[in-house]
Amino acid sequence: MKYVKSTDAFPMESRTVDGHSRRARTITCDQCGFGAHLLENSAGSLPPDVVAKKFIARGWKVSGSRICPRCQAGKKPMSPAARRAAFCAINDVERKPPENNVMSAAPAVRIATAEERRRIREALEDHYDEDAGRYRSSFSDKALAAKLDVPLKWVADLRDACGYGPDRSEATDQRNAEIETLKLEIAKLQADLIERFDELERRCNKLQNTGAR
Questions:
Q1: Is residue 208 part of a domain?
Q2: Are residues 69 and 33 part of one domain?
Q3: How would you write the chain as a 3-class SS string?
Q4: Residue 146, domain member (yes or no)
């Protein structure tokens, strides 16, 4: 399917937010057809260059073709549902409920706001050691989520999306290293005991054989 790019730089549309109508500037990816929007807070319309800078800050390519962050990353296509979920998390796209659905829909999963994602990113910068590829001290995705009072999945998804390493900590690595050291000591002790046992058994057998003559 081909997607036709609008002749407007960033088309305007009306969106309902918390029961109020808000103006929004939109952008559509020329490669996958995915769209995102930017709510306008000012009384007047934002200049196109300001809108462009805001979309660029979200990872969009706006010069020439409009390319979304995922297409720029060259990632393989996902299913429509999975692709929309991933894109919503990055670009604040509203999740629209299915129309004419006679079945009871499950409660919509809340998407992190821009402010909540900013707080998570700042916390990751403070507590994640990128050089070591782990959290500092005893921090983890779970600890960070508890500190910020946000869902664990938000922290894990943003850590992965921002290119941080795995969910491991300095304290965990130190504990694992200590466990490995103890295991080596136990193995050495076992070997020493076996060697000592064999030596005593040989001496005992020798004495028994000598007495039997």
A1: no
A2: yes
A3: CCCCCCCCCCCEEEEEECCEEEEEEEEECCCCCCEEEEECCCCCCCCHHHHHHHHHHCCCECCCCCECHHHHCCCCCCCHHHHHHHHHHHHCCCCCCCCCCCCCCCCCCCCCCHHHHHHHHHHHHHHEECCCCEECCCCCHHHHHHHHCCCHHHHHHHHHHCCCCCCCEHHHHHHHHHHHHHHHHHHHHHHHHHHHHHHHHHHHHHHHHHHCC
A4: yes
pLDDT over 70 at 80, yes or no: no
pLDDT in tens, 84-100: 565 566 555 444 555 55
Note whether 34 and 27 are within 8 A (CB): no
Task: Count how many domains the chain has.
Answer: 2
Residue 28 to residue 10: CA distance in whole angstroms: 9
CA-based torsion, 42, 48, 53, 54: positive or negative = positive
Classify residue 24: in a domain, yes or no: yes
* Vertex 77 angle, CA 76 and 81, to 5°: 140
Which residues are registered as beta bridge partners of 39?
24
Q: Which CA distances in Å does 146 have to 58, 105, 135, 151, 153?
A: 26, 29, 15, 8, 12
Higher-confidence position of 15 and 203? 203
The per-residue pLDDT for 106 is 59
90: tokens are: 């990055």
pTM of the model: 0.41
Residue 141 belongs to domain spanning = 114-161
